[in-house]
Amino acid sequence: MPTDLSVDEHIDGMLAAVSRGSESARAAGLDASVPTCPTWDVRELVAHTGMVHRWAAAQLTGRGDEIGSGADLKALGRAAADPVGWWEAGADELASTLREVPDDVRVMVFLNDAPPPRHFWARRQCHEATIHAVDALTAQLGRTPRHDETGIDERIAIDGIDELLGGFLTRGRKLAVDTPRRMSVRPDGDLPSWTVSLSDGSAVTARHPPGNEHRPSNAEVADDTLTGNAVDLYLALWNRGELVADEATIEWWRKVARIRWS
Length: 262
What we know:
This protein has 2 domains: 7-145, Four Helix Bundle (Hemerythrin (Met), subunit A) (Up-down Bundle), CATH 1.20.120; 172-256, no CATH class. Helix content is 50%, strand content 9%. The chain contains 9 helices and 4 strands. The longest helix has 25 residues, at 117-141.
């Protein structure tokens, strides 16, 4: 399994993130700009996230064709009398769906190395909500938050790093580079680490369990290494935070790693 967290833990993580995010969104106001998503205001942020939760629920219940791209749903969210409440309601609907569908439900997933579909969607929406809750917090604060301001649990952060590096980045040639390059991601403490090898083909990610004995050999020395608090790494890899000690690597990362809705 590519994740140590259970379906229930991912559902709980999603709902906790929505609670934090909705509190920040209300405090910031619907017209506040979102520094981490420069073209969005808070209304657009919560409409997007509430749409994605409903879109995920539709996939799980075989209604994906009815929802399509989600554009109509997003318009409903923007026009809602209480867009933040609309986001919360979408998360509640998704949580109920995830609890009700069987473990062996057969529906679409779209990342590499994914857990079974029910677990995949719980995991994906946990991180969808967590990252966008940080976006709402940036709108409230007017700046990038410190890791201790986000409310993100270390286990969620480690799981989110793994999903990004092992699931998103290994799809297709999105990170193709002319010159082979190897990046190491090493959270502080006795935690897993990762090595991402880039070339003119697909990225390849290797996971390393905790402990020095599992670290890459000298023959696999990285060209770039990101180290730091697990939550800081999670945010930085999702382009939501700063790692001053690794500024050059993060600047390069921002240029090559861009995850989009479509």
